[in-house]
Amino acid sequence: MNPRLSLAWALVIPINFFLSGFLGNFYAAPLEIVLLAFLFQMGVGLFLYHLLGRAGWLAKNRRGDFSLALILFSVLLVFVAAMFGMAGRFHRLFDAGYFLLEENQFAAFGIGSLIALPALSWTLGMVKQREIERTRLFKFLDENLPGLAAAAFFFSVYLILASIFNRPVFDVDDIFFDSDGLLWRLRFTTENWHDYYWRSVHPFVLLLIRPLVAFVSFFLKGDRLSAAFLLAAWVGALCVFLAWHFVKRTSGNSLYALLIASILGASAAHLVFGSLIETYIFLAAVQIFFFVLLLKPKVDSGAGRGQSLLAFVLVGLAAIGITLTNFAQTMIGFIVVKRDFKRWIKYGLLVALFTIPLTLLNNFIYPDANPYFFDLSSLNAEADNTFSPSVDRALAVVRVMAFHSIVAPDPLLLQEEIPFLKVWIFKADPLQLSEYETLPGLVAAFFWLALLVLGGLLFLKNLKKEDNAFPLAFILIVLFNLALHLRYGKDVFLYSANWTYAVVFFLALAWKELSAHRWFQVTLLVFLSLLLANNSGLIYTMLAASALHIK
Q1: What is the pLDDT of residue 54?
Q2: Rounded to whole angstroms, how far apart are CA atoms 318 and 336?
Q3: Residue 299: its pLDDT value, please?
Q4: Helix%, strand%, coil% for the chain, nearest 5
Q5: Can you list the residues of the chain whose pLDDT is less than 70?
Q6: Cα 330 from Cα 415, distance rounded (Å)
Q7: Helix (H) or strand (E) holding 458
Q8: What's the CA gap between 262 and 535, in Å, rounded?
């Protein structure tokens, strides 16, 4: 026993309370609660024990980094608590008991937590004796502790929101930002997998995501809806972790990577679509993972090149399988970063070769799920989402891409044909766009504008000095999405997860020369705090507008 171990054990208890409370919905027997509490106390306790050790080393050797990291995680903790408290004010929408233990489960929870304390001490002794620290799993955890910790905070927020905005009571589409919440909830969690809009742009999305929902539901005693909550939140958190990994690899600064990853996780796009059961957060994760793969250096041997290409092909298939147009982003990234025309052609051909049989397999397993994308007549279903380009629409799309996807404006509240107030940010016909009407929104937007301008100037300053393959790829991805949405989309914010990562990564690379400067790290931390405060207002509006229609 030692003070660090005791502190780690004590810090796990509130975390364990909520984890056991959530899983207590499915494992309610006293013995099951004892086992859950014990396992969480052990697993999270070992993680926190090591994290505290790293924090202690940081406090002694890099006090500035330690102080900022401590403030950052404190801000994230306050945000999680604030989201839980905000949700708790809307009793018609949010059931706090979904995350809390029942009174009759307290004793079992206490027993499981208590017996974990000596077990933790014994396990740590075994770890040192058997040199488990040399295993790949331990090395992975050790190298990625900060990113995993940040992802855990955002996972908590996304899961709270997912349990609200994906409830069956939301029984129509288009409530939030023109998203098809009912459609995708039915397609992923029930046997009603038929696309009643009969669109072909998601060729084999069911083949990719339904098995994941089924796998998670296996551990929740078959509850597919709760499994979808978990999966959406987990994929949103994965985006945060992958962002941390990308920025850490490109900048070499873990604290800077934490700040950038947190800005992505707190962006309006990821806060919303990391919580809604839709396709967009899955696309964002696939795209970010593709760029993480691009970080790996080229392998000269034939076998190595083949293995590397296979990984790209698999991720490219995931992108095109979820939504056809997103394959273009992987093509842009591959050719601009790798600069290998032959491999680019091979990559495109291989993805195209496997897309058709996978589409056929999708509809074989899920009969009549959606039309085949190679049946061009099926594209007529997208006609309602296409509009004539105009200068006004172009300016509105640019504002959504550059500002609203990060700093949430005050949304539009539309009373139209559905029995809910629509919460949108962009309306195509007639053209309407949200504005920043509150002081926190205006301050955060101008703060973000200053950071955008700074990033643009630094990029131009270093244009000839550095390898700008990644920044140029991100610029082209943004331009591709701009061109696409000049014509397509009723609420362009719906697609914001397709480009928000590119905007944030571009700026992260542009700001890289400032990444180690304390003043700039403090600046990003202040902006993150303002961003969290402002974007929580968007969530509040979504809750308040929805609660008006829930009996």
Answers
A1: 87
A2: 20
A3: 44
A4: 75, 5, 25
A5: 1, 127-133, 297-307
A6: 39
A7: helix 439-461
A8: 13
How distant is the alpha carbon of residue 427 from its chain centre? 25
Indicate the Cα dihedral angle 225, 229, 230, 233, nearest 10°. Answer: 160
H helix intervals, 198-326: 205-218, 224-251, 254-266, 268-273, 280-294, 302-322
* Bridge pairing between strands 432-433 and 426-427: antiparallel
Contact between residue 236 and residue 275 where contact means Cβ atoms under 8 Å apart: yes
Neighbours of 190 (CB within 10 A): 10
pLDDT digits (tens, 9 = 90+) for 270-293: 999 999 999 999 999 999 999 999
The residues, ordered by sequence, that sit 6+ positions from 527 with a Cβ below 8 Å of its Cβ are 263, 444, 447, 448, 451
Is residue 22 helix, strand or coil? helix
Residues 6+ apart with CB under 8 A from 90: 164, 543, 544, 546, 547
Q: Give 341-410 as a 3 state SS string.
A: HHHHHHHHHHHHHHHHHHHHHHHHHCCCCCCCCCCHHHHHHHHHHECCCCHHHHHHHHHHHHHHCCCCCE
* Helices 500-510 and 254-266, axial angle in degrees (round to 10): 150
Cα–Cα distance measured from residue 216 to residue 230, given in angstroms and rounded to the nearest whole number: 8
Give one word for 270, left, alpha or beta, with left for phi > 0 and alpha for psi -120 to 50.
Answer: alpha
- Distance, in Å, from the CA atom of 64 to the CA atom of 60, rounded to the nearest integer, reads 10
Q: Is the dihedral of CA 501, 503, 509, 514 positive or negative?
A: negative
Query: Residues 6-30, buried b or exposed e (16+ Cβ, 10 A)?
Result: eebbebbbebbbbbbbbbbbebeee
d(C-alpha 240, C-alpha 405), whole Å = 16
Q: How many CB atoms lie within 10 A of CB 361?
A: 12
Distance CA 525, CA 222 (A): 41
pLDDT of residue 302: 41
The pLDDT of residue 495 is 96
Q: Look at the block and give the residue holding tokens 């309610």.
A: 28
Is the peptide bond between 430 and the residue preceding it cis, with omega within 30 degrees of 0?
yes
Q: Is the dihedral of CA 90, 95, 99, 105 positive or negative?
A: positive
Question: Which tokens go with 15?
Answer: 């975390």
